Each structure stands twice: as structure tokens, then as C-alpha cells.
């Protein structure tokens, strides 16, 4: 069936690529409108699906099912190229397990014959091509590597050299390919070329990534230098699959070992980076890619800051930028923050399955799962991204085994007890960065026409990217509003946070999560939540420890402890000149909390102390 309407083609492609899995309406909308869906997106997607069903006909349309929160397309394994490809790969793995490398290589060749050079070329969706297209390209490249491993294990080193030369030229930083080419060159009697390739690759890695070659590639180099793998040409009468040297090769490891493991590529897509974050992005990339760790430790970077400040976006931009150095793949999990914590017990089975462990072989015992995870990741170069961690206890079981892997964590907490972690505190955007972000949403011309009103909006948003995105979305949805009109709504609103909501986005849920994670004091101390509520009742924009001590009849030390707990929870700005400050968003939230409880005595004490 040919679907001529461009946007319906995007919907159809999204359904096909996620065959037999539910894909949400929101995700389809992101693909159709390239991450900028209009308010009517959900209804329009439903219309597109209805038209697709009409085009498919009665029999085929019965397979396009409505399943919350979206749709599911039922498809047999042999009814799509991707399904057939997956079947060939599965059969190849089964044959390799039985020692039939000839058959495994043939199945992988059949799988690759189904591909064309540029997947999704006729699908008019940059986002779909970026997310699914990259995945498909990576899958194809991994399959090519598996077939080359099989060919090397069959001692067809001379035959695969031309193909490997072409692939390495196209992917010069993909160390797995470089190692295979070095091995093939050496076995073909071209030792000097293999060593020169290693030298050139090392220079390229250091110059572009600031990283030395991986342990696997260094091992290939050492084996060649020591002539551990002697070049040999198999006897024509010899059965290649029974050659005793097959299992010795460093790269293939008889196909059934490390080279057969999947290389997950799980990083979500992200919006374009802001120039205002370029410095933080460079620092975080430096944290992740440089420096060696003591034996037994994994290089770890933590991005911390208040909710909505852009931690996840910065971490994911960094992760995408350094993917080339994580040659064995990238694992990603959203741990949910304080509101809906996802434990390592829930994440580990998925990570293990993504690393190639059959689900029925995943241990039941949590400690055994952790041990298996560390064993599978030890000595590999993976990038593990853990988003929205609420505690170090969530993170520790998910730290990969020692070796060349990297761990990137985002959290509202500092996670100071995460051993060896380098921390980047991400603050609010400055005025220039805030104007850039607002202009990227509503257009620079609209901002330039009302610069003072735009600055008023951004002052209320306190440099918080989430708040600015919501403000921009509201203005974009209401082209008849002037920025000045919206600025007046924000400054005059009885409940400011009600104005900063757009669809399922809101500033209040972020603040609720911060408040829910607030550390409580010992019984003899002052409750930080009560201090926050009292500040809201008074309308204070700043406070000192001495004033809180008067308000609550406690020592200054106890007052400082409560205020520091609020800073730790991102509900108060760090002290400058002895005063702790609340920006407009925090003042509005504190006022809401105060309205929910009775605090007359504390607010009166504050006024007397002021």
C-alpha cells in the first residue's frame, strides 16, 4: 500500500517501526510535527489514523488497534523487512551457538541484503529520522560487525579486508571495526599496515575525544606486537568451523562471546542546545571523556540543580556528543525523581535484557542481578545515563563494572556520597540565555518588538528554562496576546503558578516534588517546611538566620540548619551576604503553601523581627 499524504506516511512509519508495541499519541505527534505539535495534535493524529484505516481496507485495518495511550499495529514477523531482518539475526545467533559459523554468516548476509543505505529517506520527519533512523543505522552496523566476526572466525581475513577498509574510513572512531581490520590485515601478512592503523586511530581518538584506545583495541595491538596470532591461510580441504585457532582471535571470540552482545542505543532525542549552556556542555563533556579512575572505580559525573533548570537536556546533549567513545552502547533510564521513584530492582532486569541476557535467565535475587550486571559491563566501554535520581541508593546498583565505562547522572540532590563523582551545579539562565530561549519559541521578532515586556516575563520566570518554555508556549498558542498583556497577567495573578501551565507541563509539579523531598530535622530542631510556610505567609523575598531564630524562638544554629535544608531542596537560594533569597516562583509557591495552613503567629513574629 502506498500512502501519499506526507504526515500520514509519518504516522504509518512510526506504527511499522513499533510493530506489536503500543506507541502513544504524544510520541506520534512529536514525529509528525518534529517535536513542536500544535494544541490540536491529538485530534489530528486520530484523524490521520482513521484515514490510514480507510486506506488499508477492512482486513488490514483490523490490525491497527486503539490501545491506551495510543495505537498498536499487529504485524507478523515476515510481513516487514524489519521483521524478516530480526528473524535472520535470531537464526544467526542460534546457529552460532551450535558452532555453525558458516550458516550464521549466511543468515547475517541475508539480513543485511534487506537494507538500503539510508533508512526512512522518504519520510518527512526530522525527529523520526533522528530517533528511529539512527537506531536502524546502528542496528545495521552491528549486524555487519557480527557477520565480519563470523568471517574472521572462518579465517577469511583477506576476503573481508576491502569491506573493512571502507567501513573504517566511514567510521574511523568505531574501535570495534578498527580492531577487526587490524586483525584481518595482520592475518593477511600486512602487520606494518595493522600497526600503522592503530597509531593513526590512537591519534584521532586523543585529538577528537581526549581518550586513549579501549582495552579491547589495545589488546589487539599487543597481540600483533607479540605475534601471538600467526598469519595463516587455511588448507583448502580443512573445515573452517573446526579450526583450533578460531576461538583464539581477540575480536571475534568465536562470535558467541562479547562480540555477539547487543550494543544498546537508548538515548532519547533532545531539542537544540542553547548557546547560553555551551560552557556547561563543554565542562560536562570534559568530565565524561577525560581523566582516568583508580582501579575498581567508574568515571562518574552528576548534573544537579533545581527542577526545570535543564539538567536532563544538558546531560542528554553531552551523552549524544560522546557516543562515539562509548563503543559498546548507551543505556538510559529515567529514575523518576522524588515523585515516582523507580528503583534499581525495577531497572536492572531491563538493563540485563538490553545487554543480551534472555529474560528467563535473569536471576530473581537482587544481589545476583547486580553481580551479573557488573560482570557483563566490566571491561566494556558503555555510557550509562541515569536521569532524575533522587538518592545515591538508587544509583549504586546501576554503576557499571570497572573498566572504560562512564556514568552520567542527573539529580536535584548533590549526591555528595556518590564516591568519585564530579558534580556540575546547573543554575538558572542569565538574561541573554533567557531571551534566546524565549525567542527560539515565539520568534526573535516578537521578542524584539516588546523587549521590556519580555524582560518582565523572564524576571517572573527567574531564569528557569521550564518556566520560560511554558511562557513561550502560552504566547505561541495565543498569537493575539501581546507579550505585555501576558506580563501583566503574570505580575497581577493571584496565583502565579496557575499562569505557568501549558498542557501537561507546569512549574508547580516540580516545586511539589522538591517540597516532598524536603529533609526533616531532628525532633529538637526546626521543621524546614514550617519555615518555608512562614516565609510564604510573610511574603518575604529574603531572610536571614537571625530572623528565623526570632520567628521560631530557636537558636541561630537551628535556624541555619532549617534554612540549609531548604537550600538543599532547591526551595531557597544559597545565602549571599548572610541572606537567603526566594525568586518570584519560590515566593509564589511559598505563598500557596501558607494559604493551605494557618501560620498567623509565625508571620506576625517575622514582621516584628523585620
TrEMBL record:
Keyword Protease: no
Residue ranges constituting the OmpR/PhoB-type domain according to the UniProt record: 1-75
Binding region for DNA: 1-75
Alphabetically ordered keywords of this record: DNA-binding, Transcription, Transcription regulation, Two-component regulatory system
Cited InterPro entries: AfsR-DnrI-RedD_regulator, BTAD, OmpR/PhoB-type_DNA-bd, P-loop_NTPase, Sig_transdc_resp-reg_C-effctor, TPR-like_helical_dom_sf, WH-like_DNA-bd_sf
Family matches, as PROSITE patterns: OMPR_PHOB
Matching SUPFAM superfamilies: C-terminal effector domain of the bipartite response regulators, P-loop containing nucleoside triphosphate hydrolases, TPR-like
Family: Belongs to the AfsR/DnrI/RedD regulatory family.
Protein name according to UniProt: Winged helix-turn-helix domain-containing protein
Lineage summary: Bacteria, Bacillati, Actinomycetota, Actinomycetes, Kitasatosporales
Amino acid at each position: 500500500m502506498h500512502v501519499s499524504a506526507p504526515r500520514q506516511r509519518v504516522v504509518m512509519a512510526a506504527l511499522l517501526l513499533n510493530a506489536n508495541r503500543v506507541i502513544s499519541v504524544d510520541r506520534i505527534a512529536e514525529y509528525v510535527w518534529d517535536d513542536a505539535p500544535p494544541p490540536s495534535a491529538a485530534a489530528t493524529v486520530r484523524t490521520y489514523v482513521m484515514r490510514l484505516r480507510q486506506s488499508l481496507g477492512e482486513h488490514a485495518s483490523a490490525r491497527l488497534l486503539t490501545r491506551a495511550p495510543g495505537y498498536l499495529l499487529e504485524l507478523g514477523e515476515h510481513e516487514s523487512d524489519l521483521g524478516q531482518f530480526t528473524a535472520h539475526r535470531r537464526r544467526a545467533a542460534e546457529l552460532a551457538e551450535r558452532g555453525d559459523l558458516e550458516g550464521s554468516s549466511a543468515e547475517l548476509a541475508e539480513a543485511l541484503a534487506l537494507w538500503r543505505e539510508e533508512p526512512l529517506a522518504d519520510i518527512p520527519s526530522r525527529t523520526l529520522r533522528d530517533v528511529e533512523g539512527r537506531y536502524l543505522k546502528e542496528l545495521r552496523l552491528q549486524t555487519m560487525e557480527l557477520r565480519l566476526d563470523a568471517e574472521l572466525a572462518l579465517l577469511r581475513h583477506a576476503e573481508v579486508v576491502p569491506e573493512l577498509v571502507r567501513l573504517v574510513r566511514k567510521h574511523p572512531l568505531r574501535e570495534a571495526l578498527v580492531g577487526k581490520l587490524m586483525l584481518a590485515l595482520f592475518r593477511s601478512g600486512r602487520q606494518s599496515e595493522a600497526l600503522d592503523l592503530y597509531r593513526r586511530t590512537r591519534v584521532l581518538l586523543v585529538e577528537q575525544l581526549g581518550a586513549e584506545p579501549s582495552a579491547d583495541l589495545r589488546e589487539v595491538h599487543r597481540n600483533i606486537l607479540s605475534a601471538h596470532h600467526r598469519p595463516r591461510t587455511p588448507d583448502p580441504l580443512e573445515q573452517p568451523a573446526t579450526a583450533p585457532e578460531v576461538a583464539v582471535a581477540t575480536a571475534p571470540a568465536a562470535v558467541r562471546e562479547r562480540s555477539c552482545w547487543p550494543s544498546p542505543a537508548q538515548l532519547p532525542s533532545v531539542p537544540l542546545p542553547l548557546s547560553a549552556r555551551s560552557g556547561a556542555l563543554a565542562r560536562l563533556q570534559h568530565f565524561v571523556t577525560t581523566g582516568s579512575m583508580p582501579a575498581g572505580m567508574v568515571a562518574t559525573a552528576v548534573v544537579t540543580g533545581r527542577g526545570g533548570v535543564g539538567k536532563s537536556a544538558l546531560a542528554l546533549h553531552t551523552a549524544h556528543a560522546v557516543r562515539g567513545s562509548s563503543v559498546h552502547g548507551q543505556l538510559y533510564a529515567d529514575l523518576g525523581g522524588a515523585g515516582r521513584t523507580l528503583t534499581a530492582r525495577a531497572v536492572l532486569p531491563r538493563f540485563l535484557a538490553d545487554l543480551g541476557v534472555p529474560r528467563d535467565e535473569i536471576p530473581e535475587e537482587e544481589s545476583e542481578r547486580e553481580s551479573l550486571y557488573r560482570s557483563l559491563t566490566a571491561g566494556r566501554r558503555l555510557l550509562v545515563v541515569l536521569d532524575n535520581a533522587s538518592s545515591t541508593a538508587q544509583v549504586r546498583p546501576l554503576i557499571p563494572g570497572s573498566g572504560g565505562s562512564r556514568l552520567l547522572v542527573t539529580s536535584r540532590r548533590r549526591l555528595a556520597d556518590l564516591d568519585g563523582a564530579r558534580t556540575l551545579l546547573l543554575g538558572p539562565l542569565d538574561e541573554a540565555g533567557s531571551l534566546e530561549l524565549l525567542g527560539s519559541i515565539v520568534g526573535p521578532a516578537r521578542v524584539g518588538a516588546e523587549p521590556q515586556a519580555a524582560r518582565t516575563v523572564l524576571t517572573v520566570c527567574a531564569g528557569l528554562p521550564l518556566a520560560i518554555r511554558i511562557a513561550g508556549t502560552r504566547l505561541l498558542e495565543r498569537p493575539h496576546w501581546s507579550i505585555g498583556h501576558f506580563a501583566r497577567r503574570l505580575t497581577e495573578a493571584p496565583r502565579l503558578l496557575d499562569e505557568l501551565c501549558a498542557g501537561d507541563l507546569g512549574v508547580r509539579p516540580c516545586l511539589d516534588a522538591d517540597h516532598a523531598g524536603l529533609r526533616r530535622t531532628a525532633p529538637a530542631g526546626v521543621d524546614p517546611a514550617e519555615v518555608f510556610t512562614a516565609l510564604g505567609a510573610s511574603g518575604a523575598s529574603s531572610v536571614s538566620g537571625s530572623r528565623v531564630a526570632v520567628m521560631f524562638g530557636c537558636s541561630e544554629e537551628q535556624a541555619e540548619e532549617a534554612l540549609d535544608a531548604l537550600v538543599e531542596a532547591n526551595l531557597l537560594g544559597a545565602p549571599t551576604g548572610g541572606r537567603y533569597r526566594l525568586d518570584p516562583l519560590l515566593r509564589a509557591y511559598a505563598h500557596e503553601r501558607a494559604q493551605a495552613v494557618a501560620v498567623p503567629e509565625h508571620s506576625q513574629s517575622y514582621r516584628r523581627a523585620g
